[in-house]
Amino acid sequence: MKVVVASTEEQERHIDELVEQIYTEVFPRFFPDTEIKTLKGQKVLQPQDSDQMYNGTLKDAFHIISSLQAVIAVLEHINDCKHEREYQEMFERNCNNLNEYGYFFPLSFSQFKEAESQDGEFSEFIKPANSLII
Questions:
Q1: Domain WAC: where (predicted)?
Q2: Which of 20, 75, 85, 101 is least surrounded by CB atoms within 10 angstroms?
């Protein structure tokens, strides 16, 4: 018999927050809204029912959180990285980890590296600075 510890509600919520961060802060820097809508339609970074490997354990949740954080960190510094090969390896390793846990992430490092910057462009996916209408 093997005893496993279930993930906490906070970890599950943090996974959702990190996925949301990728859609609202990272993707809008690299892709126009039409591509982001396509990614949402493909259910990128949403658990896939058919190959669900995430069992809701503490260890699995930690691996998913770590991989999401690593992907975000690499993509935030992709344009000023001095060790591109190491960044690419880290990115690919963490993307593979996400895919193993059923979090579909089909994008490659080169797609982000070669993407035309969307900085300064309006996007419906970017979180508003505040929620008050004046």
A1: 1-43
A2: 85
